[in-house]
Amino acid sequence: MKRPLLLREICKHSEKCGYDCTRLKSLLEETESSLRGLDEKINWLRNFEKLQAIQKQLIWPSVIDLQDPKIYIPEVLKQHLAKQPCEGLILSPRRIIVQEGTLFMIENGKPVEMQVFLFDDMLLLTRKRKGLFKKQKSSVSDPNPGINSWSVAESSTRYIVYKQPMPLDRIMVHDMSPPDQGGGALKNSIVILHISRYQQIIGAVTLQASTEALKVLWLSKLRMTMDRWRSVHFDHKDTLEHSRNQISSVSEF
Questions:
Q1: Exposure pattern of 211-227 as b/e (b: 16+ CB <10 Å)?
Q2: How confident is the model at residue 58 (pLDDT cuts 50, 70, 90)?
Q3: Does an H or E element contain 63, and which?
Q4: Are the C-beta atoms of 148 and 101 separated by less than 8 Å?
């Protein structure tokens, strides 16, 4: 890391003395480019290890568990439907974990602890199932331990996936301002609507943070990641506006 600084100083003083630094500047650019590439590879590997750790801790309920118990499933199919084909979904070389932490979902008027994972393409809500914890060192050291509550570790703590992942282009986020908080019961809360590709609202979740600062952090991360995803995948600037206009009943979102 000190080499570019050294080359830059040599070039600076050489130019003052009237020397031609063309080759030296070229070497400096090559060195900086090489270091940037190394940083990118280290960051990619560190992120991949985080994805591995998360995937190992996830439990995907079968469709039998998710279905309304009144709905009949033939016995011949139950064995085939006992396992979800998406159990390896998280570990993608192109997926990035953006934020992870504990929020509380309001269910039947009571807060339920949830472990929430925000990726660069989807939002995943899970319920924590606690167990014993065993540390496992990462093969890549993290210069910022503790940031975003990430820990590359092998743990018997498991997270049961709540319903289904929500693609970032299929959700709308609403900040519950003080007038909407119902006397403080929904303090530090945000509401997330899950919308199908046919513009049908198929889910609504109220998530509550423990502090105002934490809510602001999650809100900013959500909006920033959603905007980044749309800017990369949508060809037209008016796509989001068109999507919003299709749902007149929640136009205030």
A1: eeeebeebeeebeebbe
A2: very high
A3: helix 63-66
A4: yes
